[in-house]
Amino acid sequence: MSLKDLIEREAAHRKGTKILEWEVKIAQARGQQTEAARLGGKLRDLRRDVRQRELPTAIARERARLLTLASRHFPELLWEGSPFLSQVRLGVTDVAEKDTLMRAGVLPQGRSSLYDFRDEKVISEPNPQTGSLGRVSECMDERGARWILKRFEVEGQNAARHFFRQVTMLHKLRHPHLVPVVAVWQEGLHAFVQMRLYPGGDLRAWMVARPADGGRDARESLQLTEDILSAITFLHERGMMHCDVKPRNIFITGSGRAVLGDFYGVREAEPEGSGGSESNPHVPEATTVLRTTSGYVAPEVMGQRRMTFAGDVFAAGVVLGELLGGGVLEGERVGMLGDLFDCMLSEDPKLRPSASEALQSPLFSRETCEAAQCIICREILLRNRGISCATPSRHFLCDECLNRQVESLTRIDPNDSYTRAHFKATDCLVNCADPACPSDPFTALELCQHLRPEIHAQRESLLLEAAEERGRIDTEKERERELRRNLPVPQRAMREIMHDILTLRCPRCWMAFESFENCAALNCSRCFCGYCAYCLKDYGEDAHSRVPLCFVAQDVGNRLNTRFSMYPERDEWEVFKRERQNQRIREVLQGLSDGEENEVTSLLTREGVLSSRGILAEGGDMNADNQIQHV
């Protein structure tokens, strides 16, 4: 029988079952007991027939057979969008809450273990004795990034639906110390979960590489224990139990922090009244245990096969003993560890502390467990793993994004010199990543606590470069002032006209400019000073709000019976510049004696400087008095 026939028959059985169920309810509502009994017998026969035929299993096997044949002989049939693949592959939307998965940041489609990944290395195979229900492998994607793939057998729609519902719970389980799931998909009888590969490996390998008697750092071990308890606390606060806390399910990140993984056994606590303890709120409603690992199972769980939050605490206590025992701690901390260890491994679950209470032990640093979402990468991390602005919104920037941002601002890029120059001109200040945030820049102390040493060194080097550049500018200004003080009055006036009036300059660094495009609120390309083109005054970083109020533009405009706007045309700008330079030259000349005035005017006229700029007309035979009057 073809796959299409199997699917149609299974759909017909499902439809027939639904119709009979409604007919039974209608007959019962009408009081037709005989008819209801007859229809009930017919419904039981139909359900028995469905079970005997095992149509869901047959459909899953036929899907797997067709996918296997296609992958071996007709790989082009497996391309995304092909009619064959759309008919053969069991869609995630058939068995999962797609919207919920997407909100959780999980990609529910668009993966193929055969074509999207390569260089697969099997880490472990399914083993009921160890509690492992799936095959775990390490592989590489097309971009060269390495991932962990977990493959589970999900024979039939019920198993597939259960699997995807388990993954859907992840939208409740986003925490810095819980392993996030990247993607889930199904191929025939197998469902796959794509997860991050952590460079530090699992906690078991980490402990083996660092023996307790001298090779394991106490501070680092305490931090890992605190991370584990933080993750368990987060789960318990949301009414969920991990059910399989052990070193092989705990992974070490590149920064040396612990994350708790393997959520296939996570269970929700049953509703109130199904077995909870009134005398101890930390022993909540029990849940049937489907999988546990020997050595980490609480006594009451082993006897009754019923899991509680206290069972997770017991398993965490065993891990705590392995991680911190054996001489890792010294002094008074040994006694603190013993007290906490005894409480967490108490035979009576009512005497065990909750995970949150265990975190309050004086053994730990009691750092805040507040989580925050990075404004750039959107990752959820503990707030102390990044930097937050001082506004009530407390916009959070994780350490990784902060370091990348500062690195991009300090890096020499031949294709983008503006970014680095602007960062240098603003004294390498780092602001909140939200462009609309009014908070002050982060302090140097805050930055040095979160920047990597090499990134911090780059920023300090750029700060030194900026200081040296400001020193050169100040030296140039002082040299110019000293030179003018030592010049005779006519030469001093001549230099003032040539350097300060006829040459337009940035008021901060004295960099010259000839003209500008469109807007009269200028920014220097050297020091990024914001200044007004009309009055050439320094207004910090932005002069847009000051240009419309510029008294110089208003004064010149009144004399010429016009108005100079924020966006003058080129001809309008030339008219303003000529009139303004005329006015300033007249002011300089009027401050000189008659002889000095005639000497300066003669020098300017002989050089043709004034006439070439349209300020004085040509006329070498004009006497000095006429030339001054013309100015």
UniProtKB/TrEMBL annotation:
The keyword Cell wall biogenesis/degradation does not apply. GO terms for molecular function: ATP binding; eukaryotic translation initiation factor 2alpha kinase activity. GO terms for cellular component: cytoplasm; nucleus. SUPFAM superfamilies: Protein kinase-like (PK-like) (SSF56112), RING/U-box (SSF57850). Keywords: ATP-binding, Kinase, Nucleotide-binding, Protein synthesis inhibitor, Transferase. The keyword ATP-binding applies. InterPro entries: CC_SR_Kinase, Kinase-like_dom_sf, Prot_kinase_dom, Ser/Thr_kinase_AS. One of its GO terms (biological process) is negative regulation of translation. Residues 122-364 form the Protein kinase domain. Gene3D superfamilies: Transferase(Phosphotransferase) domain 1. Pfam families: Pkinase. Belongs to the protein kinase superfamily. Ser/Thr protein kinase family. GCN2 subfamily. This is Protein kinase domain-containing protein. It comes from Chromera velia CCMP2878.
